[in-house]
Design brief:
The complex is a heterodimer.
Chain A lengths: L3 E4 L2 E4 L5 E7 L7 E6 L6 E5 L3 E2 L7 E6 L2 E6 L9 E6 L11 E5 L1
Parallel strand pairs in A: 2-10
Antiparallel strand pairs in A: 1-3, 3-8, 4-5, 4-9, 5-6, 7-8, 9-10
Chain B lengths: L2 E5 L2 E3 L5 E8 L8 E6 L5 E7 L6 E3 L7 E6 L4 E6 L8 E8 L5 E4 L3 E5 L2
Parallel strand pairs in B: 2-11
Antiparallel strand pairs in B: 1-3, 3-8, 4-5, 4-9, 5-6, 7-8, 9-10, 9-11
The chains are: A mainly beta, B mainly beta.
């Protein structure tokens, strides 16, 4: 079973700053990785799929990169609505777990 | 627009059973796979189960395999999760999610809460 780890657990930044979130897989998932955003009291929202493709309606300030075992979600300039928890998810093989999440909070 | 609405959550004793439902609208239900994902209080997301668009295959997390069953009724646009032998650690919000056809989840319901407690 593939295990995902995310770092850091918490990222404290100010609006306008750049956020860089990391997801690492215990074995290669090729490019089969997604990122989701979840705000308090809301369901998750798909941001990025297949490593670097933005989902419908996702702003260009969100971008994804990586391959194999190391992946990055970058938010180029944080907007107030971007403070949330971010999860990665692999779909390379069953089961398809999520990572433990990175909380991006306001500094 | 595409929508998923879960129901069936509640309070149940350990060892008990519940059946969750998820009603879909706004898309061709029979053309898409569907997932259940849960979230324990204050914790992260845990993928639970998936059924293919035609119901031909189901996949489960190790933590629920043998106790939970995912199924679908395409005539009613409803996804189900039958949960048996419930444990305290099954407590949480249960979300259904639509698959994009590539095992990524692009539409989510608002969730239904399951509490397993004596």
């Amino acid at each position: 079973e593939i295990v995902l780890t995310q770092s850091p657990a918490t990222l404290s930044l100010s609006p306008g700053e750049r956020a860089t979130l990391s997801c690492r897989a215990s074995q290669s998932v090729s490019s089969h990785l997604a990122w989701y955003q979840q705000k308090a009291g809301q369901p998750p929202r798909l941001l990025i799929y297949a490593t670097s493709n933005r989902a419908t309606g996702i702003p260009a300030r969100f971008s994804g990169s990586g391959s194999g075992t190391d992946f990055t979600l970058t938010i180029s300039s944080l907007e107030p609505q971007d403070f949330a928890v971010y999860y990665c998810q692999q779909r390379s093989q069953w089961p398809i777990p999520f990572g433990p999440g990175t909380k991006v909070d306001i500094k | 627009q595409m929508q998923l609405v879960e129901s069936g959550g509640g309070v149940v004793q350990p060892g008990g059973s519940l059946r969750l439902s998820c009603v879909a609208s706004g898309f061709t239900f029979s053309s898409y796979g569907l997932h259940w994902v849960r979230q324990a209080p204050g914790k992260g997301l845990e993928w639970v189960a998936f059924t293919r668009y035609d119901g031909s295959n189901q996949y489960y997390a190790d933590s629920v395999r043998g106790r939970f069953t995912i199924s679908r009724d395409d005539s009613k646009n409803i996804l189900y999760l039958q949960m048996n032998s419930l444990r305290v650690e099954d407590t949480g919000v249960y979300y259904c999610a639509k698959d994009r056809r590539d095992y990524y989840m692009d539409v989510w319901g608002k969730g239904t809460t399951v509490t397993v407690s004596s």
